[in-house]
What does this fold into?
Amino acid sequence: MTSAVVIGTQWGDEGKGKIVDLLTEKADVVVRFQGGANAGHTLVVGGETYALHLVPSGILRPEKMTVIASGVVVDPEALIGEIEALRARGVRVSPDNLKVSDKAHLIFPYHKALDGARERPLPGMGPEGTLKIGTTGRGIGPAYEDKASRKGLRMADLLHPESLREKLGQALMEKNALFTHLYGLEPVSLDAMVALGQEWGQKLAPFIRDSWKIIQDSLARGLRILFEGAQGTQLDIDHGTYPYVTSSSTVSGGASTGAGVAPALLGKITGLVKAYSTRVGEGPFPTELLGAEGERLREVGHEYGATTGRPRRCGWLDCVVARAAAALSGLTWAAVTKLDVLAGFSEIKMAVAYRLDGEELLYPPSDIRDLARVEPVYRSFPGFAEDISGARALADLPRNCRVYLEALEEAVGVPLGLVSVGPERDETIVLGEFF
Ligand code: GDP
Ligand code: IMO
Ligand code: MG
It folds into this structure.
């Protein structure tokens, strides 16, 4: 098989950027298939840190091709900014090594304004009228809504300035009614949006391509494709902690629909399992640690959002959630990340089940009202004190650390494919072949 998929099994920020960058060594093409600039994927190479939002995490290797596929929602302003920032640091980004799907939907400033407005109380109303999700404010929900309700504009529309005004006019009619009548915002100027669209078109035209055919051609030529997931399984629109989720399919199936590749061609599927849990934004989080242990995970693990800088909520590893991800995405194996962050805890815990109304659950309940009531069933492990960032084989890890990994493997129900022991590309124990 010449494809492989990397997805997050938790609430995002599992270390997908690092692992995709590492695995890109063996890949030819790296594809983002869903989400948008809500993602923040961090790569650390030779002491240099790069935070990517839309550009796939293969970009640091100039000979590889990267693709932003049709399932992604693209904020051209963010994309142009990211391309310029990468180029300013000497990273090659050109239409040769970055392709953006002509079918990918666009995020305009009015999507971001709507995203922000929905997170605030309506003018003259109390906070109880608002469902605050704690979004990244990047316009993701409103853009996917427009896509689903068939009011969206796509990258290809930037190549047709003659119809841009008409399409934007149709989109803005409803948006401006909402802005002025409900949210107390200034109406959006059609002229300004048309000008913006034209400017984006001029800058991005060389990158806009029929990405799904490029991916199909690459597969036909035997090239190796790495699909880079964004967010995590518990943020999936269908399978996550709805409504505290993002608006796309973060499971492995999203790679198939978002990139335009048949499910049977996806190859090995790697689920990233951070050695503890984090969550940004609102929503239930059964293993959350609100005291000193959570604080410690946040500080040692530098758990602050790569996109918004928000402190991430932290807690013990939740194997119930990871077990569900293994089933939902058909994981070949798990890649455990940030194991080094657990060094120094005298006791480490992992949830292996939930208890709800006297019953033991092996998978999360569907309804967040139930999820908010579950009690994690913990297994407790003695900690390890050693700095493990130099480990390059399982045998280099302290015994207590290996015991924890074996328990994780057993609880999640898939083998280990990789263990990450530091943010740098080479701070990794690789246990198998990914292609
Ligand atoms: P992503 O969204 O899944 O790509 O993850 P983020 O980049 O948002 O967050 C992961 C953070 O952990 C980044 O700062 C990474 O540099 C860092 N990181 C990744 N793997 C490891 C690891 O094994 N150990 C440590 N200490 N940090 C890691
Ligand atoms: P990466 O790819 C962590 C969260 C937001 C919020 C919810 C909805 O870096 O793992 P959205 O802006 O998507 O409408 O927000 O989803 N969220 C993420 N949390 N990592 C991410 O991406 C996230 N992308 C969105 O915090 O709770
Ligand atoms: Mg992130």
Summary: The pocket of guanosine-5'-diphosphate (ligand 1) is lined by residues 8, 12-18, 40-42, 44, 302, 306, 337-338, 340-341, 420-423 (CB under 6 Å).
